[in-house]
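[Q] Does anyone have a clean structure-token version of this?
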Amino acid sequence: MCLLLCILSGCEECREIDCGPYHQYQFTVFGFEYDEIKNIEVRSFKKGTNYTEPVSEWLITPDNALYVYTRDTDVFLITPSPDKVNFKITSEYDYEFYFPTTKTNRRLSEITDIPSQVEYCTPSLQRSECSNTQISSYLLDGTLHQGGILPFSK
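[A] Here you go.
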């Protein structure tokens, strides 16, 4: 009887599921001239390996990313184009950003994000949209920073 009632009423069960790690697709640089950031080499590493186990690498250039300059703050916001380069920053890896023109190297590690959850219902498989989680903290060259768009200086 209970099974028949469940079938007739839809018997939908909902629960909370994790949205997954945060992905950030942009970063900022300041103190650089435009010609100094035309080529940015980015490598991801297996987390916690002290940059010894590479996973992926990307070359970020004006051909595959949008460079927006803000004159009053002297900052470039760099957003790689997802259809040209499969670049993202996530808490699953550590990263190294190398600026060849100035021989500047920046290391990003210990990225932590604020997890979020959504409601997921069965049997309809209806799912509410994941609200983006956000980066809560990270180490940049060994110095602790709190949230925000990742800044790299010369």
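[Q] Thanks! Anything notable?
[A] The chain is about 5% helix and 55% strand.
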